[in-house]
Amino acid sequence: MRDVAIIGIGHTKFGRASKTSLELFSEAALQAVDDAGVDLKDIEALFQGAALPGFEEGQVTPAAFSAAELNLGGGSIPATRYEGACASASIAIREAAEWVASGQCDMVMAGGVEKALLMGTLFATRIFAMACHAPTEGPAGLTFPGVFAMAARRYSKNYDIPLDKLREQMALVSVKNHKHGALNPLAQFYKKMGDLKVEDVINSKLVADPLTVLDCCPFSDGAAAIVLCAAEEARKYTDDPVYILGTGQGSGGALSKMKDLTKPDSRIKSARMAFKHAGLRPSDIDVLELHDCFTIAELIALESMGFFEWGEAAEATTEGQTESGGKIPVNMSGGLIGKGHPIGATGASQVYWIVKQMRGEAAKGNQIDPVPEYGMTDTLGGDFGTLCHIILGRGK
Amino acid sequence: MTGKEQEEIEKEYKEYTVLSLSEYEEGLRNGKLLGLRCASCGGITCHPMPVCQWCGGRSLKRVELCGDGELTTFTVIRVPSEGFEEGAPYIPCLVKTKEGPCVVGRLDYDTESATQELIGKQVKMSGTHTCKGDKFSDGAHTCPVFKIQENKL
Questions:
Q1: ipTM of this model?
Q2: Which of B44, B77, B138 to mutate to test the interface with A (most CBs of A within 10 A)?
């Protein structure tokens, strides 16, 4: 198997878009080929994450239409939509990397797109809840905030942290991620909520007890894309290739099958697979973009990936260990909470911001110093249904 | 080659499902929490799945659970999905049954006094909730409803 490099990246502004999904993805794709200095005709296959396009614009097979409108590879190349709910783009990138590693292709494009904001909160809540287990969680009326609210209550119980204290610790995740989102010109909340306070989060509207609206990421429109090629060719195109050192993927089932909502096997196994593939450990990682769909989700992710012991991520967050200059800077882009969460695009957006960090081009106030050597993404689809991890490095 | 006789193909066709979702839901509506017992490990699977949820065993028999369990966690949904507004706010919950498997259902409790102290309490299946569903849900579906057993720790 060959090593794989990322040579070009693209990312639209996240938030409310007047463009169609096809147009949004094209924006990101054109940025990515220009960034790589390659031609659209050089792309041999497209791997596109898109979670719910049928419900958003009445569109399926979006990848085929994207490839056709961009005339990728001169036309008629393999173009496939990947669906793993909110992890759609990450599994698309993972597959893309496998195709290049195997030698099947030399240069491919991967990414994702979503237009969720136009649906409004109630309908979007409905179709996002389709990633819950429909037969059992459907009639119970579970929603995504509901699932993570249940996990938050369990976290409080497992580690004997009074719920009021845990709510303050969770609020600090929102405060941190909004601080960085407010500094990111491509973020949904750019220049907004940068000085959020813990009490603002706790006193905002309850969505699913104990989670408030400011414990939740927003619904968003947006797209992101990357160009990948064989590592040995990468320096032909760029002085700053970023290498895919390891990937992992895991799957979960109905919520009722989980041994513990705060210790998802799917995430633990996926992260271990990626670390093993890369030959690295959590202590090697300098910067992390993880799936903070809800504040509690950031804590669960940090522990499941091995960055903190079980039950210690809440306190570590309070101590600033997940901030710039801490043990592991997390979501310096603003994460899903501050940057926005166009679900099918999120995994590609996470990779985009790790690459930006490695180039020293993250927004002022969000850039890690010195430039990180190793970075990692964590993406979660459904209620722990699809997990994907990608480990990136400046060297092989 | 002349191919295989249609009658033979039909005769050979076999279905593997021991307890279907609709039979499980019908059981709930009749006050019964049905599951499957594994001949290999003895474990109980609930809701119904194609193989044992503990060991993957394929030899399963229908069994009735007692409906008693412990409240693992819950939430109060204040922003429901479109089409699921009926009865909101309401309380989805996760219950660990006496027989082992966890089930998702609803908790019959006052939403404004449902606090963290409820976790760990004994519950009993007290009825069902049927969602009429929407155009995406393949009709109405039913889940168990649980009630706190106040006199039990």
A1: 0.96
A2: B77
